[in-house]
Specification:
Layout: E1 21-24, H1 43-54, E2 62-65, H2 71-74, H3 80-88, H4 98-103, H5 116-135, E3 141-144, H6 165-173, E4 180-184, H7 191-196, E5 203-210, E6 233-238, H8 244-262, E7 266-270, H9 288-299, E8 305-308, H10 315-330, H11 366-381, E9 403-404, H12 450-469
Parallel strand pairs: 1-2, 1-3, 3-8, 4-5, 4-7, 5-6, 7-8
Antiparallel strand pairs: 2-9
The site of zinc ion (ZN) has 8 residues, from loops.
GO molecular function, one term: metal ion binding
Keywords: Chromatin regulator, Hydrolase, Metal-binding, Nucleus, Repressor, Transcription, Transcription regulation
Catalytic activity: N(6)-acetyl-L-lysyl-[histone] + H2O = L-lysyl-[histone] + acetate
Length: about 500
């Protein structure tokens, strides 16, 4: 197991000014359609691709078509019955499955549409494929703009997300890296990823998001992880109208400190573009350059980096943003004047890549920002040493049969560098992943009331009981490497001092 220090761990060398970039794209992805009036539009991925193509950026990176994730790949995080449901449900049969739809939270925000399962396989395949490429040192940065669906839970769809490609990609990275950092700049809290790794110290999650009467309602600054994972979840709650300068006054000092103390072997950056100014569902005021500054900064650490998409509902700006950020990944400054291409008319009247932020009020006062910054740096000071892991056998890699877009022979799509022997046998071992919703521990023990204390006790009992039962787990490959904590923790959430999920008008929240 290589234990590489931050700053010199790129396959192409410590000072590589240029990075070797793998970009995953499936030409079918733009055809999936959530339905009339639904704000989530996979077409934005095709618009992004078209911009990349006409700016000439595709020639600077390996363009790969993701191999669809298989059932067993998805089942490394998701429940078997949930994956079976996603595979079998169709718009025609959904009327006969009302109970299942309700159980898995599929129907309204997360509708059933034609090709739903292959859509999931495609976007998850790109993220896992990117992780495999990074693991093998075949690139420095892997990009999958179709991924980043951070709200999906183990057995539940949420917030336009069905399977959690980010959790799956992180599980893949954990096969080769002791520690993985997850950073989320979507305007919404990265709840699905945080929950999955809430009790492990091998994955640190840091989410910057709008907090307060906003979907999904989680992401309080006091939610810091639980058990072994205490201090390994960070939440940065923000208010409406945040601008580039305010955002970076938190992002850089916090992420800089995280890199220093956690020393991740790989980083996953979810680049949700609904934090941009003028987003149809968002309320922040970031420019594309301000948003991309997060990519630039993460890239500067010379650690293998997986860039994923996420939210983003003013689709012309999403395409602008992810095109510009692809340029940042490559070390190419993209011209503002847009080249003619098939979606050119979307970008009028200026036909430029950048758009000015608005004059909306920034509700994040200097004082508020300073308070957030010092609270989080204080939490980080409790993380003095990067944890090390006692490794057992490395689990086999996920096969990586993705291909260059223009490759035709399916047999040639198999990556010769990938370990092809895959052990199909599921071993019942436990992992450190969180499966249920677990009561959140707050940083300040003082604020816990009696009820809270009781909740913790119950939680610990539950963990012990599950351990004694030898509860088997999914994630068969990774489990032995994650913490020795028990797999299936099932504890009801205790929301006694947390905001409850806001009542949920369809489509107004993500
Ligand atoms: Zn979002």
């Amino acid at each position: 197991m290589e234990l590489l220090e931050a700053g010199n761990s790129l396959p192409s060398g410590p000072d590589a000014a240029k990075r070797k970039v793998c970009y995953f794209y499936d030409p079918e992805v733009g055809n999936y359609y959530y339905g009339q009036g639904h704000p989530m539009k996979p077409h934005r991925i095709r618009m992004t691709h078209s911009l990349l193509s006409h700016y000439g950026l595709l020639g600077h990176m390996s363009v790969l078509k993701p191999f669809p994730a298989r059932d067993r790949d998805l089942c490394r995080f998701h429940a078997d019955d949930y994956v079976s449901f996603l595979r079998s449900i169709t718009p025609e049969t959904q009327q006969d499955q009302l109970r299942q739809l309700k159980r898995f939270n599929v129907g309204e925000d997360c509708p059933v549409f034609d090709g739903l399962y292959s859509f999931c396989q495609t976007y998850a395949g790109g993220s896992v494929g990117g992780a495999v490429k990074l693991n093998h040192g075949l690139c420095d940065i892997a990009i999958n703009w179709a991924g980043g669906l951070h709200h999906a839970k183990k057995c539940e769809a949420s917030g336009f997300c069905y399977v959690n490609d980010i959790v799956l990609a992180i599980l893949e990275l954990l096969k080769h890296h002791d520690r993985v950092l997850y950073v989320d700049i979507d305007i919404h809290h990265g709840d699905g990823v945080e929950e999955a790794f809430y009790t492990t110290d091998r994955v640190m999650t840091v989410s910057f998001h709008k907090f307060g009467d906003y979907f999904p309602g989680t992401g309080d600054i006091r939610d810091i992880g639980y058990g072994k994972g205490k201090y390994y979840s960070l939440n940065v709650p923000l208010d409406d109208g945040i601008d580039d300068e305010s955002y970076q006054s938190l992002f850089k000092p916090i992420i800089g400190k995280v890199m220093e103390v956690f020393k991740p072997g790989a980083v996953v950056l979810q680049c949700g573009a609904d934090s941009l100014s003028g987003d149809r569902l968002g309320c922040f005021n970031l420019s594309i350059k301000g948003h991309a500054e997060c990519v630039r900064y993460m890239r500067s650490f010379n650690v293998p980096l997986l860039l994923l998409g996420g939210g983003g509902y003013t689709i012309r700006n999403v395409a602008r943003c992810w095109c510009y950020e692809t340029g940042v990944a490559l070390g190419v400054e993209v011209e503002d004047k847009m080249p003619p291409h098939e979606y050119f008319e979307y970008f009028g009247p200026d036909y430029t890549l950048h758009v000015a932020p608005s004059n909306m009020e920034n509700k994040n006062s200097r004082q508020l920002l300073e308070g957030i910054r010092s609270t989080l740096l204080d939490q980080l000071s409790k993380l003095r040493h990067a944890p090390s892991v006692q490794f057992q056998e490395r689990p086999p890699d996920t096969e990586l049969p993705e291909a260059d877009e223009d490759q035709e022979d399916a047999d040639e799509r198999w990556d010769p560098d990938s370990d092809m022997e895959v052990d199909d046998e599921r071993k019942p071992v436990s992992n450190g992943m969180q499966s249920g919703r677990v009561k959140r521990e707050t940083a300040d023990a003082e604020i816990k009331d009696q009820k809270d204390q009781k909740g913790v006790a119950e939680h610990e009992d539950e963990v012990d009981r599950m351990a004694e039962d030898g509860a088997s787990s999914k994630a068969s490959d990774v489990i032995s490497m994650l913490t020795e904590e028990t797999a299936r923790i099932k504890v009801e959430p205790d929301n006694s001092n947390k905001p409850s999920d806001p009542p949920a008008p369809v489509f107004s929240k993500y």
